[in-house]
Amino acid sequence: MTDPAEQSNSSQPQPLSGYRVLDLSGPMGVYCGKLMADMGADVIKVEPPGGDPTRDIGPFVGGQPGPGRSLYWLHFNTNKRSVTLDTGSPEGVSLLRRLALACAVLLETCPPGHMDSLGLGYESLAAESPGLVYSSITPFGQTGPYRDFKASDLVGFAMGGYMYVTGWPDTPPTRLWGSQAYHTASNRAYIAILLALYHRMMTGEGQYIDVSMQEAVAATTEHVNTTYNYTGEPAVRCGFRHGGQFIATWKCKDGYASITTNTQQAWDDLRAWMDRDGMAGDLRDEKYNDRFILRGENSDHIEGLIQRWALLHTREEITEFGQSNHHPWGPAATPEEILENEQLWARGFFSRVEPPDGGPSLVYPGAPYRLTESPWQLRRTAPAPGEHNAEVLCGILGLSPQEMERLSA
Amino acid sequence: MVLNADSHQTALALKGIRVLDFTWIHAGPSATRILSDQGAEVIKVESNNALSVVGGPASATARGLGQRHNWNAGKLSISLNMKTPQAVDIARRLVAVSDVVAENFSGRVMPSWGLDYDSIRAINPGIIMLSMSGFGRIGPWKDRVSYGQTLQAWSGFTQLTGFPDTDPSGPASAYSDAVGGMAGAQAVLLALIHRARTGRGQWLDVSQFESLSALLETLVLDMSANGPAAAMTRSGNRLPHGGGAPHGAYRCSGEDRWVAISVFSDDEWRAFVDAIGNPQWTEDQRFVTGEDRCRNADTLDSFVESWTMQHTAEDVMGLLQAVGVAAGVVQTGADLSRDPQLQERGFFRRVMDHQGEYRTIESAPYRLSRTPGNVTRGAPDFGSDLTYVLREVLGMSDDELADCAIAGAFD
After folding, report:
1. B177 an active-site residue?
2. Cα–Cα distance between A150 and B321 in angstroms, integer?
3. A130-154, pLDDT tens digit by residue?
4. I want to staple B329 with a disulfide (CB 3.0 to 4.6 A). Which of A121, B313, B375, B386 is the partner?
5. What are the tens digits of pLDDT across the range B137-166?
6. Superfamily covering domain B247-251+258-329
7. What is the pLDDT of residues B296-319, one digit of tens each?
8. Which A-chain residues 242-301 have CB contacts (< 8 A) with chain B?
9. Listing from the earlier edge strand, what are the strands of the sheet with A255-260?
């Protein structure tokens, strides 16, 4: 097998190179734009003249806000170009329209109807650019009684059905760490855009894509809908004891560890280990032989025994024993451990970037997939506001430098 | 922009693409269902040894049956006993006429059948091979085993999800499988685009650990810039950065009923205060600016909850949405099944299975105007499309089929 570092040779072509994307998205779509940019698309992020409001979202380099210091901005805008335009003025809107017509993909997250009101709706643009792939991400979609409802990541997560089941029976429903409703909306929109781009390659036709964050979340819960639709009972919160106790995480000596007894062998091995420690109680009894017993009426009793035993061992002992016996056991890692993870570094997932001004080097996360022939690349870090005004407004649209100055300042 | 749901645009984006699908359980099948929805012919290769796994053809539980249909609707199924040379030969012939081969076994399985990427590429040079695994097929951890929950623990999601003063809860379900499924489908689509442009296939090494780690946002950036002290900790329903208060789930009237509310700007705060009738406590000096509200969020939350407790979650959503404040019911599976928005948009679909029973599945969470996709049937029965695939796709004769059957190739 080739060395992974060698495979991310920057001379390799990327699947989306040559596609230009107009990125008008806010936080709901910013990750979608990044996914396209990271795979080679020329993603042009449009900002208001003072810079995008998300540049003020922390954390910040050195803990202090300031130009170029928002790690949120740096993370979500890798490989993009930036132009500043006043989209509140008719001239700005007219430039935006010209830019859109020079793009293969338009990505936006405005409330339904807003782009139409600017004269930048799909039908109006498609009349001149029939190959345009126009993707709208909104909280609830372009149709239906909730189309005008507002949502944040939290509200999208709640309305999609993921929040009710996350957390413990005695805690409020809980959000996932990170803005996962936004990420999921972006992930789903990206799939739809790739489908549309493939169709465009085959036929030359563009199309309109309507993505609902609520649906994106609802299609990503694994068990919420199937449980209700097939058993009539809604799934409930059970913390990290997913699906009964046999896919479970336990508190141990130095944190938490996941001990999944997905096979009979895993359950037998766990009981044998507990027994060697003198902590198995009556679990070696024949009536506990079936691993699905963990779902049954004795689950509280069994849970108590496993929990008392788990506190004797470290995450590493549990992981070592499980993995050496081919069981899917592992530690709940801390953030510091993720930064140091040897598998992620060995595969070239992380990229270390030295900043030009001599500050601390930054470690960027990489791609969700590894395409061996056409890989992910960090070609450029996130842009400064309007960094590419000349390249884009003069280079692509043919404005004179004077016009550019006037319209982008 | 409103799409015409009755338009006669029935093109399928992936018509003509054939996927030979060895995947099982959740992540793999959810990736290939994304392709099958858009017209790819997905041929599931199934084994007698895995009938009752999650998503398997003989799921033991009602929920398992639901997962079978949800992740496998629209696909074909053939049964192959890969321990027989005849079955391996059929698989190799199917490789020759497929565009994509997908698998999510442990790293030893495909090579043991002579179906590693190099062998597959020798049969079909333009092939795209999707290998999905916990940690990826190269690197020091390539042989480690994982379930969704193992990966959520190892990637930090377990430790970081939950409230600061309780045990972490982690994601409720197998978020990592859903995320891996999306990454798998994305990788295949990118590879199809690349192949259309260059004529070249490739091997896709999807590590679900990486698919999840890609969603950690600024976690590692923050530690690299600001040192380990910047490592984030659990913050419950509040955002560690970006503010917002109230921002959380608030108990409403009824049994275990909750509403999610998020207020960021001063305008949203004023609209919120008006909508709840300007109670005295909203004028408290502790809640004047956004910064004040975040700093005093515990106190603010208890006031907010004293109001939400007097209302149903649905009423709170309606009242706040009417003034432009983001609020939504924390919906249960039952709520989703009768959600008027999802109903209007046709999110849940009823499709017929092989026994003529209607099964409820989720549809793709996007509407493409020209290639809307199409799922017309539930998951296949075990081996139900064997005859079609062997006769029509491979052109095998009845005699060949009989010989293979006698040799146990389909058992």
Report:
1. yes
2. 7
3. 999 999 999 999 999 999 999 999 9
4. B313
5. 999 999 999 999 999 999 999 999 999 999
6. formyl-coa transferase, domain 3 (3.30.1540.10)
7. 999 999 999 999 999 999 999 999
8. 242, 247-249, 251, 255-258, 260, 262
9. A241-242, A247-252, A255-260, A330-331
